[in-house]
Amino acid sequence: MHKIQRQLHTDHYHLQRLLDCFSYEIDCYDFDSKRSADLDIILSALDYIQTYPDKWHHPTEDIIFSRLLKKRVKESPLIEQLQDEHQDIIEATEKIQELFNSVAEDCIVSADELLTRSRNYVKLQKRHLEKENEHVYPLMDSMFNENEWREIEKEIQTQNDPLFNNPSKKGYDHLYRYILDLEKSKQD
Ligand SMILES: [Fe+2]
Ligand SMILES: [Fe+2]
């Protein structure tokens, strides 16, 4: 497996873990929750999504997906839909971030609105990932030879994941420790 392909797979695994933690915090806005939400964690998670998946992961997929479209694969309609969703996700992240920024600035937002919009956002992200995993990622194994991967590599500037790869240096150490602790508490 080419290293870019491997990084995309790893990104999906990491993003799922992040979204699970985000969902856990969002559940605090449910009427019967006895916990209160950690706004720092929510904002940090959204900041990370804007910094890495929205800036590197989706644009990298766009480059690869365009090459698959040129090969006229039968999954082309779905690939076009996924490219549109990249834009939808970037916009949705901005809107959810605005929403939680207004909460941080003490604006009154109903718990119901926070819950509904956040859950819809997580659903959009997860469905997108699942469609890619199931229908498009397997194509990368069969559709590109080594030469084509070299061409793709020239178009893509690899980037380090600032949360899961090197958390202590980029200001996500608190979020990273939170994710590990939460995962551990779920196993116990
Ligand atoms: Fe994608
Ligand atoms: Fe993806």
CATH architecture, please? Up-down Bundle
Find the CATH superfamily: nmb1532 protein domain like
Silhouette: globular
Pattern of helices and strands = HHHHHHH
Structural class: mainly alpha
Describe the structure in your own words:
It is built from seven helices and no strands. The chain has helices at residues 3-26, 39-51, 53-70, 76-104, 111-143, 146-155, 173-187. The chain is mostly helical and 188 residues long. 76% of the residues lie in helices and 0% in strands. α2 packs parallel to α3 (53-70), α2 packs antiparallel against α4 and α4 runs antiparallel to α5 (111-143). The chain has a single domain (3-158), classed as nmb1532 protein domain like (Four Helix Bundle (Hemerythrin (Met), subunit A)). The relative contact order is 0.16. Bound molecules: fe (ii) ion (FE2) (2 copies). One fe (ii) ion binds at residues 12, 57, 61, 129, 132.
